[in-house]
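Because showing beats explaining, we think one record worth quoting, sequence and backbone structure tokens together, and here it is:
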Amino acid sequence: MNLGSLLSEARNPQTMDLDTLSTLELVQRFNEQDAQVAAAVGATLPEVAKAVDAATTTLRAGGRIIYMGAGTSGRLGVLDASECPPTFGVPHGLVIGLIAGGPGALLKAVEGAEDNPQFGEDDLAGLSLEPRDLVVGLAASGRTPYVIGGLRYARQLGCTTVAISCNPASPIAGAADIAISPLVGPEALTGSTRLKSGTAQKLVLNMISTGAMVKFGKVYQNLMVDMKATNVKLIDRACRMVMEATGVERAAAETVLRQTDYDVKPAILMVLSGLDATAARERLAAHHGFLRDALRA
């Protein structure tokens, strides 16, 4: 696949005059292009749903979700992975982000790191990859050798694999079990795939991780009940979640949260069931952490 055949590298006929526009016209043009992203992602939802189910299966089997990419794509994977522990209370290392060139590439581009497929294989091997793990390859172009090498290695090992790209029939799509390809079209700034392509990838990652965590019992109603209350803002959020889920006043919410060390899920169960903290945790454990099932019991 050469650059000339890549949709993400094509010139956008609607933005050929960027350098002549007023500031307001410039940002309006960017916004008009961004408005196309959600629809492009919407066209891929059946594949996204398959990826959510695959991620859920992985979590239930004790496996890990591993994102890998280069440049913007790699940074987006690292971002999504890093936000899972505080949001859903999962341990660090359950969702992992790999970027070509290593952690230093998050802040400064490591030239050439993405060009060797062996580097992708090596990074996964360094994690002691297992067949129960899920590997998600990210590349706007869909042709990044680092990602291709990683996906091929993961499939050989028996892992389920997902590819997220913004070009049709891309090499990484052919190297994965599930291919998600939101076709956002040429970028407003030619080849700058941190724009529409990056936004599309972020939307897809949001759905994969959040959807999997919902199906893994980390959410009650639409509340992040396994959130870690590690600062004043989050302690306040924990109080509000208990109040909203149970109808109690703030003082009562604070009282029960102190008994659970600000663990929201058992606090809600205590209020709604009358159990003490120990019994609430035991019932949650018996129902694999699903609060709704524990409440039905």
